[in-house]
Amino acid sequence: MSVIARYQGDFMHHVVGFSPGVFDLFHVGHLDLLSRAAGRCDRLVVGVLADEAAEELFGARPIVPAIERMEIVSNVRYVSGVVPLAGTGLREAHEAVGFQRVFTGGPDAPAAADVERELAGTGVAVVALTGLAETRSAVLRGALPGANPKASVA
């Protein structure tokens, strides 16, 4: 049974939230996103973008490999499950996981308008979380999107 298929039976009577992203160089902004998302659903499943897909989307491979990013995210207490995302398309993830809400807002997550267009007609609510915490670490901020996009997708 695939990792995604495993989650279908667990969430039959709950509001399942989904938060896609890269989650490279996990920091307080990621934690804020996941904490706030978890407070708006019964179960939160996180989709971690594969290294190749992140490289295609951002022009650089993540610093931390996908398998390690998944392990880190899976150990966050707000997260009920983690699934790998081979690409940025959310329809396949929606069909497999069956989420009712998608949370956006992180710098490495898709824009709310893009998610709404892609999931139109599915009944999925898109929740854009704003004002997320930012890391105070100058080193991490330098590696985050916008500082030097070719160095990392963190």
Automatic annotation (TrEMBL):
Domain of life: Bacteria
Residue ranges of domain Cytidyltransferase-like in the record: 20-127
Keyword Nucleotidyltransferase listed: yes
Pfam family membership, one: CTP_transf_like
UniProt entry tagged with the keyword Ribosomal protein: no
Database matches in Gene3D superfamilies: HUPs
Keywords assigned by UniProt, alphabetized: Nucleotidyltransferase, Transferase
Signal sequence segment: none
GO-annotated molecular function: nucleotidyltransferase activity
Protein name in UniProt: Glycerol-3-phosphate cytidylyltransferase
